């Protein structure tokens, strides 16, 4: 086993409330309070990390337009940021600090 995997796992912090919500979902996969915690956490993560939560959410509630909307908005938001970055590379219509924040969000 390589040290890289262990380092990556150790570096990824999972809040206690998220661990509790995951445990609740093991017992009851329809627990909306637990899903709300996971959704809030996903909304504060880059899409590449949040995508797994959104995919689980819409798999559990496939007919919920509200949950599909959350997932789609997260995906579209990142596309919008990429558009802003590419559009602003030619001219400086976005301040450099804003561009740096957008890149951080996109990564």
From TrEMBL:
Biological processes, Gene Ontology terms: mRNA 3'-end processing
Q: Which domain of life is it from?
A: Eukaryota
Q: What is its main location?
A: nucleus
Q: Where is the Suppressor of forked domain?
A: 17-76
Task: Please name one Pfam family that this protein belongs to.
Answer: Suf
**GO-annotated cellular components:** nucleus
Location in the cell reads: Nucleus
The answer on whether this UniProt entry bears the keyword Isomerase reads no
Q: Which UniProt keywords apply?
A: Nucleus, Repeat
Recorded coiled-coil stretches: none
The protein's name in its UniProt record: Cleavage stimulation factor subunit 3 isoform 2
Protein source organism: Macaca mulatta
Q: Which gene encodes it?
A: CSTF3
